[in-house]
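ok new one. same drill as before - structure tokens go in, u give me an amino acid for every spot. 351 of them this time. try not to just spam alanines like last time pls lmao
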């Protein structure tokens, strides 16, 4: 005979079993007041824009083709219109009526241009660019996943300058509760199909393939210190987030921040060194050198950081060999030579 307390504990454990093995999927996406309801797991009714998957279980192999859109993701029959710049609210659940329940790890959002009809597009061939990441919330001291455990959605905004067309939007949870060793991170991807409208022309180029863009040993995938306060310092795998308004020709936000640095340093270096060398000279070359910064940022100098060091060292030897610097000594030497010879009539020195 089981006691009443044992029976109660057994029932509680049985209630947890679906949660342990079910994990989760995107159940709904809201755009403003419009709801887009996703299909149930393996329901065989893909009449929606959220792609149907065959299982809510985690993917743990970064080289698994299912990493792109989930287990055996089926092409959706709808690709509703959404304006560039719109914000989407993603709701996650277990797929069996419960809320998402993991609490540790980031949530990322990617997009890939289908280059035509998304119903004919292979997501494993997509060029995925990141539009959003929700990691550790320093204000609450919790990961953003914790908000989903209460039934709240997580939002992501489509870049306002994105070129129109049909796109896949991939919402991905990285559950890191077992990430202390390789193979422990759990990936939960979900893809939905959209027709983006607008007048933008941006084509983000900082992209990855999925699978292919993650390594099993990436620092954001193997996280030995996941329970030792790493949250605020955590760096998620994948490319930098694309920021609307950046040039389509710039691979990432980090590259665009670094690019101007060599150009500015190469302009400043020749200016300061040239003015220093000419300040010791009384020749009329100084006004010319002060105007040299205009052509200074040539493609060669601005493409490499060492240009500033080479340009600053180049004038040093030339300052000692400039005609203006030696002319004074030569005149003094000539005077000494002249003084050593007796003057002849009509001539200062012998011919």
């Amino acid at each position: 005979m089981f006691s009443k307390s044992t029976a109660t504990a057994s029932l509680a454990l049985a209630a947890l079993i679906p949660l342990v093995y079910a994990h989760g999927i995107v159940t709904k996406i809201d755009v403003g007041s419009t709801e887009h309801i996703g299909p149930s797991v393996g329901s065989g009714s893909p009449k929606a824009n959220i792609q149907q998957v065959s299982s809510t279980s985690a993917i743990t192999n970064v080289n698994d083709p299912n990493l792109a859109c989930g287990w055996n993701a089926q092409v959706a029959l709808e690709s509703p219109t959404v304006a560039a710049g719109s914000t989407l609210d993603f709701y996650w659940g277990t797929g069996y009526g419960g809320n998402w329940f993991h609490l540790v790890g980031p949530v990322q959002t990617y997009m890939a241009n289908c280059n035509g009809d998304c119903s004919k597009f292979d997501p494993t061939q997509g060029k995925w660019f990141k539009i959003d990441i929700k990691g550790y919330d320093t204000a609450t001291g919790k990961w953003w996943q914790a908000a989903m455990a209460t039934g709240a959605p997580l939002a992501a905004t489509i870049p306002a300058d994105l070129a129109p067309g049909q796109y896949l939007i991939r919402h991905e949870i990285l559950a890191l509760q077992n990430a202390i060793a390789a193979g422990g991170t759990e990936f939960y991807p979900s893809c939905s199909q959209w027709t983006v409208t607008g007048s933008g022309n941006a084509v983000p180029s900082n992209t990855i393939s999925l699978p292919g863009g993650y390594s099993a040993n990436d620092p954001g995938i193997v996280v030995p210190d996941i329970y030792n306060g790493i949250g605020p310092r955590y760096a998620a795998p994948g490319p930098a987030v694309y920021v609307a308004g950046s040039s389509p020709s710039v691979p990432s936000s980090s590259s665009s921040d670094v690019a101007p640095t060599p150009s500015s340093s190469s302009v400043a270096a020749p200016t300061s060194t040239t003015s220093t060398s000419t300040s010791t000279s009384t020749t009329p070359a100084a006004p010319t050198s002060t105007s040299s910064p205009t052509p200074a940022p040539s493609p060669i100098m601005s493409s490499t950081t060492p240009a500033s060091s080479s340009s600053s060292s180049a004038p040093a030897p030339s300052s000692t060999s400039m005609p203006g610097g030696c002319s004074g000594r030569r005149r003094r030497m000539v005077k000494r030579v002249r003084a050593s010879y007796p003057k002849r009539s009509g001539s200062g020195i012998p011919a």
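The CA atoms of residues 130 and 239 lie 7 Å apart. and btw Residues 1-21, 248-351 have pLDDT under 50 and may be disordered.
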